[in-house]
Amino acid sequence: MNRIPSTVSAENLTQFETLALNSSMNLADGHARQQLTPAQAKVIAELPELWAEAVLRPVAEIEQETADSFFGMLGQHSHPFAAGRTLPCYSSSLAMEILARSLVTTSDAVALLHPTFDNIPDILRGVGLRLIPVEEEQAHDDDLPAELLQQVGCVFITTPNNPTGRVMTAERLTRLAEQCAEHNVVLALDTSFRGFDPAAQFDHYAILDASGCRWVVIEDTGKLWPTLELKIGWLVRSENVDLPIEKIHSDILLGTSPLIMLMVKRFADDGADGGLADLQRTIAENRALVRAELADVPDISFIDEDARTSVERVHVGSRLALDVWSAVSSQNLYVLPCQKFHWARPEEGDRMLRIALSRNPSTLLAGARVLRAALLDTPGLQG
Ligand code: EGV
After folding, report:
1. Which residues constitute the domain of residue 81?
2. What's the pLDDT tens digit per position in 126-183?
3. What is the total count of domains within the chain?
4. What atom of ligand 1 comes closest to residue 162's alpha carbon?
5. Model pTM above 0.85
6. Which residues of the chain have pLDDT under 50?
7. What was the pLDDT predicted at 6?
8. Is 359 inside a domain boundary?
9. Domain boundary among 220, 245, 269
10. Quick one: what percent of the chain has pLDDT higher than 90?
């Protein structure tokens, strides 16, 4: 069987995604690439007016309104913008980098959810932090062991998780925050996918603040709307966080574009006005479409039955995911092999692919057909 052609090398998931950027069947990255809805297209048509507005108005006012709209749309009513603890970044990965650089000034290790998107472990390791994996089941089902919390300066959780879609409940978050408070460990959350799942839209800030723990939350507009990489990542922190976040943020940027802020505000207002529910419906339809197209393929399964996020994992049975990846990429279809999500034990992802669902139905259908044929054609290990 073909493995990745020798001319292609991908050192991380994003490099796999880069391979797909010019393909008409790009089901690799988790960015939104579906058509704008009519209401969204109207916002884009009004960008020249938003530009004029951005030139005239004070930045702080625009940022406050945008934060209120975006965090409000997501149920995060206790967000601390008014207290000056909500810093805008060009992307959530930049927010992550600023957090990592801040953490490494006071600690040398982080407990990190496993599996999760690999740029999170890579950014943390990139500043010299040591990582200890926390299995998803463990994070969601039990208290964390005291011995683990004694070794780390931070517990980092992605919720909903990428790629599994698993959401931390209010009850678990409450307990985890209590544990972090007890052990003086920073609780960091990446909530970039929360717009897709109402279960992730209870007021996290109220729970975090009530716990008294030191906390950081990374919020993101980047996964929700097809805005051609125009997006904001917010780095939000507790009053007692005691990390040099503001200083490091200011080392790297003065601020984000008020034009993008105004655009985000308009998208969020539309989201609150039914757009977000529409988006959730669209993703559910797209997921159903992919599952239906692959339904009669033997020896595969959909791993995350209840997931609502904009990605879908497929277990390819006794086949190797990289064999299937090679077969479909030779036909211009790009998906993600899952090994690198399993940053501590890549072999656990050997038989899984991730399919992006934030696409037009016609693209998904074409992709699912190519994938279906390749799966029918790719022998399992004993086949
Ligand atoms: C996904 C890629 C990086 C990330 C893609 C992603 N960004 N590497 N800075 O946005 O699920 O495809 O999260």
Report:
1. 39-269
2. 999 999 999 999 999 999 999 999 999 999 999 999 999 999 999 999 999 999 999 9
3. 2
4. 11
5. yes
6. 1-2, 6, 383
7. 46
8. yes
9. 269
10. 95
What pLDDT was estimated at residue 7? 54
Instruction: Give 184 Cα–ligand 1 centroid separation in angstroms.
Output: 30
Q: What phi and psi values does residue 336 have, to the nearest 5 degrees?
A: -110, 130
Q: Which of 16, 21, 31 is the pocket-test mutation for ligand 1 (most atoms within 8 Å of CB)?
A: 31
Residue where a domain stops, chosen among 238, 253, 269:
269
Nearest CA to ligand 1 atom 6: 30
CATH classification of the domain holding 209: 3.40.640.10
Write the DSSP symbol of residue 313. E
The 3-state DSSP class for residue 4 equals coil
Query: 């052990």: which residue's tokens?
Result: 183
Cα torsion 242, 248, 254, 255 to 10°: value is: -60
Among 145, 149, 142, 141, smallest CA distance to 111 is for: 149
Q: Are 307 and 280 in contact (CB under 8 A)?
A: no
Q: Which residues line ligand 1 (CB under 6 A)?
A: 14, 17, 29-30, 93, 117, 119, 162
Nearest alpha-carbon partner for 30 in 265, 299, 351, 307: 307
Tokens of 184: 């003086």
**What ranges in the chain are assigned the alpha helix state H?**
13-20, 38-45, 47-56, 59-73, 92-103, 119-126, 136-141, 146-151, 170-182, 204-211, 245-252, 258-270, 276-294, 321-329, 361-377
CA 112-114-117 angle, 5° bins: 90
Name which of 195, 246, 187, 248 is nearest 220 in CA terms.
Answer: 195
